[in-house]
Amino acid sequence: MLVKRVAGARRVVVVTGAGISVNCGIPDFRSSTGLFQQIQAAHSKVVSKGRDLFDASVVFRSEQAANVFYEWMTHLRHQCADAQPGVVHQFIRELADRGMLLRSYTQNIDGLERKAGLAVWDPYKPKDSPQYVSWQQAQSVPLHGTMEHLYCQLCSSSFPFSEQPGGTALSAGDVCADCMQRSEIREALGRRSLPAGKLRPAVVLYQEPHPHSEDIAKIISHDTRALKSRRTSHDIILVFGTTLKVPGCRQLVKQLATASPQSTTILVNNEPVCGRMWDGIVDYQVIGCVDDWCTRIRRVWNSQTKITRWTATTKSAARKENNCGTLAAVPQKTLSRKRKAVGSETDEPGCKQQCVVQELPARRSKRIATRSHLDRYQQQQSQRPLSICT
What is the pTM of this model? Predict the structure, then answer.
């Protein structure tokens, strides 16, 4: 059972996408109600596709497209500021609290990992800042930057991205204050003024180099060596809420999944993702709600905690009886109530959204759920129902 295998893992690496933040009020990118579709519907005369607004080779070609980009990014920043961590974010935090989390890699730019209490690696924070987290101590690594900073496209000065609109708050598209100050100093000295750059979010767009690619490569190499060193079946790679369309994230998952042949790679998404190209890389694909799946794992943890407490109580009572020579057992009424509580937690209800797993022969005994097998499953459901939750 996959849920119990993850609950009993020793080390876990998590790779997340926009799907884990949808229930937090932040839209994803590629769905029918995602950002790409919203942008295309609102600005069809400016960009031919919604994706173009996040393409560095397209968005900065014209001032009109750049202004639309600044407007949407400021709006997205306010959405991120209002959002609160969801079930998956809390699940990753609990992995860290239990000492099971090796690292969490996220494609998201919403900053909800920090709100959940994870130590997030942020290269834009100065090293002498009390909030600075080195990459060795970081529990979460944002692969595409965050919305917490703005930087000047001309002088690269960094500023905090204000969470509240209005007043003196900085927003995407504002003029860089450092550039303006240098220009005013030059004018006071009787020299010609200099151009001022505009501020943009510290996120990585399509078709532009990652400014911290070497640092991220160092972190990934470190974690890959850590997975290779032990070669144990208790290592789990979890991929949540992503279609793996971005080449960099796709390569990351392949590198982590193939680091150790004994590790298990599980992908959980609302829609099927894995095809033939993932044979021998992804062990299990779960089609269903990520929040529900993580909730089931937390139920197993709660059940294990109650069983541990009940065992400790009975052992303590036995020790008292042996030491005192008198009957000092725990009242039967109390024990029966504890046993009943454990049973109610282990009797797991079905998921709100049906989750399907399909077993196929592949290299390393991989199990992949594909569209054809899902159709076959629906035909045979009444004869032999399968569920990832049992």
Answer: 0.78
